[in-house]
Amino acid sequence: MRLRIEVMTGATELAWTKVLSPGRSLLYDLLTRETPDLGRRLHARGAGPYGMVPLGHGAPVFPRAVKVRGRYAIGGRGHLELGSPLLEAMTAMAQGIKQRELLDWGGAAFRVLNATLVEPPAFASGRALLRTLTPVVVKGTGVNALGERNTRQAWLLPTDREFPECFQRNLRRKAETLGLDPEVSLTRITWVGPRRSFAVGSAGAVRGGKSGAPVEVELTGAPETLQAIWSWGLGEANPAGFGWIA
């Protein structure tokens, strides 16, 4: 499930370090105010056997903003989305956002106009074609084809050798975290967008960034598992805004 928040702003652009980084703080602030135990638990140790955090969000989108090359344009009416496969979390966030008139998104004031809960698609066929708005980040082993470790960062692009295996592992761990059918599979990657790097730390430091690329993927699995993934996001670092599905 997702919470779609309609907003308006007089600002015209966001610094690239502020495109995604405010979202994580907003998620936890809404949760800890409305459901303190859940917020503290997810922040401290995550959920399930892998300590994953079943929360996600996207970047703010302003369709009519005047685009300027090299800048993240905002302005006028737009929206942003928060999501989670946990009903308790979504209920709390929906209640919390109703009490807000303004959101501070990286120094830009967003006036809250409306907020609506959105149900996931049915995925009744057991297949899903999903394209992300934000980069998907997946971490590999940092070991090359010769078995030599050549990096400790190891953020993978969808064209890298290790990506499909690591991406597949992440899908199954998400299902296991939620107690759902873990037989979910990456069938194919149908599109890869440009490489992007966004800051994730509260201070917005570039050195805290993660690199990846938007993707379109075809998945197969139980409808309930695909619905949960749609609500959560693809790849890692979803609470930081990565892997948000269009």
Query: What best-fitting shape do the alpha-carbon axes yield?
Result: globular
Poorly predicted segments: 203-207
Radius of gyration: 18 Å
Q: Give me the side-by-side strand order of the main sheet.
A: 3-5-1-7-6
Beta content: 25-35%
Structural summary, described in words:
- With 246 residues, this protein is an alpha+beta fold.
- 24% of the residues lie in helices and 27% in strands.
- It has helices at 22-34, 36-45, 87-97, 163-178, 223-232, and strands spanning 2-9, 13-14, 56-57, 72-73, 76-83, 102-105, 108-118, 127-131, 138-139, 155-156, 185-192, 196-198, 210-212, 215-220.
- It has a five-stranded antiparallel β-sheet with strand order 3-5-1-7-6. Strands 8-14-11 form a three-stranded antiparallel β-sheet, with helices on one face. Strands 2-4 form a two-stranded antiparallel sheet.
- Helix 1 crosses helix 2.
- It is globular, with a radius of gyration of 18 Å.
- The relative contact order is 0.22.
SSE topology sketch:
Elements (H helix, E strand, L loop, with lengths): L1 E8 L3 E2 L7 H13 L1 H10 L10 E2 L14 E2 L2 E8 L3 H11 L4 E4 L2 E11 L8 E5 L6 E2 L15 E2 L6 H16 L6 E8 L3 E3 L11 E3 L2 E6 L2 H10 L14
Helix pairs in contact: 1-2, 1-3
Defining key terms:
246 residues, 5-stranded antiparallel sheet, 24% helix
